[in-house]
Amino acid sequence: MVKAIRVHQHGGPQVLKWEDVEVGELKEGEILVRNKAVGLNFIDVYYRKGDYKPPALPFTPGMEAAGEVVAVGPGGLTGRQVGDVVAYAGNPMGSYAEEQILPASKVVPVPSSIDPVIAASIMLKGLTAHSVVRRSFKVEAGHTVLVHAAAGGVGSLVCQWANALGATVIGTVSTNEKAVQAREDGCHHVILYNEEDFVARVNEITGGQGVEVVYDSVGKDTFQGSLDCLKLRGSLVIFGMSSGAPDPIPLSALAVKSLFLTRPSLLHYTANREELLEAAGELFENVAKGILKVRVNHKYPLSQAAEAHSALESRQTTGSVVLIPDGSL
Fold first, then answer.
1. Cis bond upstream, residue 58 (ω within 30)
2. What pLDDT is attached to residue 53?
3. CA distance 184 to 161
4. Of 212, 206, 239, 200, nearest to 223 (Cα)?
5. Helix, strand, coil percentages, rounded to 5, for the chain
6. DSSP 3-state assignment of 43?
7. Shared domain check, 114 and 71
8. What are the tens digits of pLDDT across the range 42-51?
């Protein structure tokens, strides 16, 4: 038996329960990982609330972790050995646990230069940033980009990455404190959306031209404004919906400027082993070189996941939030 967070009904943070669970038996191609750190992401909130449907209730949430391989499945056909430090992001769900069984094909080796806490904090966010900056819309030198929630876990990485690629980066944030971080993360212009109209400000910054791409993790509250910020043939990449799902729009709303609209899923950009290893390799390389600076600004014991969820939803967090199995803090 190990400890894990379990959800028996959808709802607020209070539905996250700390319980004993059976790990189960390893099958061929699987490994048992003792988690050293677990990443907290907004997608966990969506599943907890029932906005996204998990396979069945009850379930253990969590889609990102780093840890040590403690056992391999029968036949040893995993490519991994006991003692390896590995990380994963995406499916299968269930990282809010002291130990979990994972398909060996879903994990990537963590370089010795990367601390497991950093790996756990950056896998899902970093691979998501890679999928939007390098795949959904490939940022190039000379582009101007708008990043909403620029001080958030993914937003901060998108800003850093786009800046390193030579783009002019505009970020929106909610507080002066977050504005300071956004500038540190490569934003050339920072907009406090509570104090000024971000559409008007973007129009001013770009001389009325608009931006090549908007990276939007907010959704409903920023959707129309994001479209309005785009230049001719611009792209809106919606990779999150922290304020809810946007209202439907007619195709004619895109036809006005021949706009592109996409709602990428990380799982579709790491659909095979080669894509996963390529993306993770590029991510870890940029972290090791200092191009991407990872802020683990908040650590909570795994048993206090409910408190961590409350802080995340109330926008009291910046950077990454990591859950540490109890006794490891």
1. yes
2. 82
3. 12
4. 239
5. 35, 25, 40
6. helix
7. yes
8. 889 989 999 8
Do 254 and 297 sit in the same domain of this protein? no
Quote the domain boundaries for residue 168: 141-263
Q: Which residue has the tokens 């230049």?
A: 231
The three-state DSSP-derived secondary structure of 44-89 is HHHHHHCCCCCCCCCECCCCEEEEEEEEECCCCCCCCCCCCEEEEE
> 97 is written with which tokens?
């646990």
Q: What pLDDT shows up at residue 318?
A: 75
User: Over the stretch 109-133, which tens digit does the pLDDT of each residue have?
Assistant: 999 999 999 999 999 999 999 999 9
Distance between CA atoms of residues 52 and 252, nearest Å: 29
Region of residue 207 (left: phi > 0; alpha: psi -120 to 50; beta: else): left
Contact 169, 162 (CB under 8 A): yes
| CA atoms of 62 and 90, how far apart (whole Å) | 9
112: CB partners within 8 A, 6+ apart: 85
pLDDT above 80 for 77: no
Strand locations in the chain, DSSP E?
2-7, 16-21, 30-40, 64-72, 85-89, 99-103, 108-109, 144-147, 168-173, 189-192, 211-216, 230-238, 260-262, 296-301, 320-324
CATH number, domain with residue 237: 3.40.50.720
Burial degree of 321 (CB within 10 A; 0-12, 13-18, 19+): buried
Tokens (6 digits) for 39: 């990443």
The number of folded domains in the chain is: 2
pTM for this structure? 0.86
Residue 104 DSSP class: G
Q: Establish if 276 belongs to a structural domain.
A: no
